[in-house]
Design brief:
single chain; alpha/beta; Rossmann fold; 6-stranded parallel beta sheet; WalR-like; LuxR family two component transcriptional regulator; CheY-like_superfamily; DNA binding
Length: about 230
């Protein structure tokens, strides 16, 4: 059972998302909050698998709550609810340790898939959000993209051949179990590789590793897919 704390300052949106999540027998909403401070308190009380947070809330916003939750409760993943108007927040959320991004206006099935992927140890970027992230990474022009690509390729030179294969699949959004199936190894071995990758590349989580994989050219420009 995936236990979720849901935070959004709009009551109607919370009710809609709760209804969507409750339709999945594998998901339980254990608490609802109207701001980031309430969400953090609920995480402390319930220790959920995932905190599903709106970006913009009065008082403590979703980005501040993300940083606090990931620092205090590394076992709780954070998935950010976002809109196209909030592209500027994505980089901050990444640096704060968010594991996924889902559009509020997206397909409800996407929300369910994203939570399952993150709960299974994967990273998830809504297809539309992924496209915007890639566009944001390229916003400084060709020279900037080439510079970041060269830097990313230099960084991934620190990992082994097998770790590079795992990193490419992280870039596709695959969970440990899915990576294990793809490569014919055990999930435990994948977990070891992932830990080594995050350490060697000095990234906080799988989303950051996935973006690095994109910048290095390990994954075709497009959209990460999530697999549970």
């Amino acid at each position: 059972m995936i236990r979720v704390v849901l935070a959004d300052d709009e009551r109607m949106l919370r009710a809609g998302m709760r209804a969507i999540l409750s339709a999945d027998p594998g998901i339980e909403v254990v608490g609802e909050a109207a701001d980031g401070a309430e969400a953090l308190a609920l995480v402390r009380a319930h220790r959920p698998d995932i905190a599903l947070l709106d970006v913009q809330m009065p008082g403590t916003d979703g980005l501040t709550a993300t940083t606090a939750i990931t620092a205090e409760f590394p076992g709780t993943a954070v998935v950010i609810l976002t809109t196209f108007r909030e592209d500027a927040y994505i980089a901050r959320a990444l640096s704060g340790g968010a594991s996924g991004f889902v559009l509020k206006t997206g397909d409800p099935r996407e929300l369910i898939s994203g939570l399952h992927a993150v709960a299974d140890g994967g990273a998830y970027l809504s297809p539309e959000v992924a496209q915007r992230v890639i566009a944001e990474l390229g916003a400084t022009g060709t020279k900037g993209r080439m510079s970041r690509g060269a830097a990313a390729r230099d960084r991934i030179g620190k990992v082994s051949h097998r770790e590079r294969e795992v990193l490419a699949l992280i870039g596709e959004g695959l969970s440990n179990d899915a990576i294990a199936d793809r490569l014919g190894i055990t999930p435990g071995t994948v977990k070891v590789h992932v830990g080594s990758i995050l350490t060697r590349l000095d990234v906080r989580n799988r989303v950051q590793a996935a973006i690095l994989a994109y910048e290095a050219g390990l994954v075709a420009t497009g959209t990460p897919a999530a697999e549970g």
